[in-house]
Design a protein that fits this description.
heterodimer; A: 109 residues; mainly beta; six-stranded mixed β-sheet; five-stranded antiparallel β-sheet; 11 strands; 0% helix; 56% strand; B: mainly beta; seven-stranded mixed β-sheet; four-stranded antiparallel β-sheet; globular
């Protein structure tokens, strides 16, 4: 049973566009929601994270929107660039970190 | 700091063989974990440890053993390799201090079981 569901599995966006990736979780005990970015041949690396006491967090072109009542959160990448092409994972954390299935983003020049 | 290191980077095994994937971190993190990554399945937790001498099972522990004798090392043992264990394996250590919570991943081991 997948506790964190992520969509879409793949996404193609034009340079300068907005990339949106969505995640939903089930366990209300989760208290930390990070996003990880993974380039081919590398391990994932932390991109941005949010705790459920706020509804939005922005770092540069990356924004997390968090809806606690709906148990959903999303990553928005503004002004998407070809260098953003990577796989993105949402996650939810309590004692363990549980990952979504990943989204492969391709930003076309 | 080397961060999280994993060896080997690549490995080919025959069905039934056993092997150990090595993982070490030099950041003095208490929390370490092993994941496997398969296409479309994301990162699935195999085993994790919250400190030396303490380990627990994750989502997909069958066929794998771990031990944590020191803070630095967290090896993953495949007892009798099966083709279903063909995957990319990532070790990670987690920094949880106060409000900070970040998991650092190693470069991965690509394992093929024939």
């Amino acid at each position: 049973q997948q506790q964190v569901k992520q969509s879409p599995q793949s996404l193609i966006v034009q340079k300068g566009g907005i990339s949106i990736i969505n995640c939903a979780y089930e366990n209300t005990a989760f208290d930390y929601f990070p996003w990880y970015q993974q380039f081919p041949g590398k391990g994932p690396a932390l991109l941005i994270a949010i705790r459920p006491d706020v509804s939005e967090k922005k770092e540069g072109r990356f924004t997390i929107s968090f809806n606690k009542s709906a148990k959903q959160f999303s990553l928005h990448i503004m002004d998407s660039q070809p260098g953003d092409s990577a796989t993105y994972f949402c996650a939810a954390a309590g004692n363990m970190l549980t990952f979504g299935g990943g989204t492969r983003l391709m930003v076309k020049p | 700091n080397a961060g999280v290191t994993q060896t080997p980077k690549f490995q080919v095994l025959k069905t039934g063989q056993s092997m150990t994937l090595q993982c070490a971190q030099d950041m003095n993190h208490e929390y370490m974990s092993w994941y496997r990554q398969d296409p479309g399945m994301g990162l699935r937790l195999i085993h994790y440890s919250v400190g030396a001498g303490i380990t627990d099972q994750g989502e997909v522990p069958n066929g794998y053993n771990v031990s944590r004798s020191t803070t630095e090392d967290f090896p993953l043992r495949l007892l009798s390799a099966a083709p279903s264990q063909t995957s990319v394996y990532f070790c990670a250590s987690r920094d949880r201090v106060g409000y900070r919570d970040e998991q650092f991943f190693g470069p991965g081991t690509r394992l093929t079981v024939l």
